[in-house]
Amino acid sequence: MTPEQKIPGPDHPITVKPSADRVIVRVGNATLADSTASLVLQEADYPAVRYIPLADVDEALLATSDTTTYCPYKGEASYWSITADSDRGEDAVWSYHDPYAAVEEIRDHVAFYPDRVEITIEAA
């Protein structure tokens, strides 16, 4: 069965905006990401999520997970675990490798669960 794809609209708006803020993601003493090219995805009434270019992420600190989830507005998400924190790092990072057209900008970007990492945002 093909999963249902939904288009953002007035009842479920999604915006993706570039940000020049510096975003640093850490776990313990390890820096997972440091970027001045993040995207801010705002979906309906959910908290905004920072998506960071994969090029600005230290992939050596991540291990691919078998976990996937599905969002009818964004598509299928793949996950990574943070190897530097086995307690809170499992499936703490996600990405949409082939996002739906409405959120195409988040391709090649990752997001982090904020309760599992320290995210610092320095205003541009």
Describe the structure.
This protein is mostly beta strands. The protein has one domain (14-122): Metal Binding Protein, Guanine Nucleotide Exchange Factor, Chain A, CATH 2.170.150.40. The chain has no helices and ten strands. It has strands at 14-18, 22-27, 30-35, 39-43, 49-53, 62-71, 75-82, 93-95, 109-112, 118-122. The strands form two sheets. The chain has a seven-stranded antiparallel beta sheet with strand order 1-4-5-9-8-7-6, with no helix packed on it. It has a three-stranded antiparallel beta sheet with strand order 3-2-10, with no helix packed on it. It is globular and about 40 Å long. The protein starts with 13 loop residues before the first strand and ends with a strand. The mean pLDDT is 95.
Q: What is the CATH architecture assignment?
A: Beta Complex
Number of domains: 1
**Secondary-structure element series:** EEEEEEEEEE
What spatial form do the alpha-carbon principal axes imply? globular
CATH superfamily: Domain of unknown function (DUF427)
* Overall average pLDDT: 95
- Helical amount among residues, as a percent range? under 10%
The main pleated sheet reads as: 7 strands, antiparallel
Instruction: Give the count of helical stretches.
Output: 0
- How much of the polypeptide forms β-strand, as a percent range? over 45%
Please give the CATH class: Mainly Beta
What is the count of β-strands?
Answer: 10
Strand order of the largest sheet: 1-4-5-9-8-7-6
Q: How large is the radius of gyration?
A: 14 Å
Distance N to C terminus: 45 Å
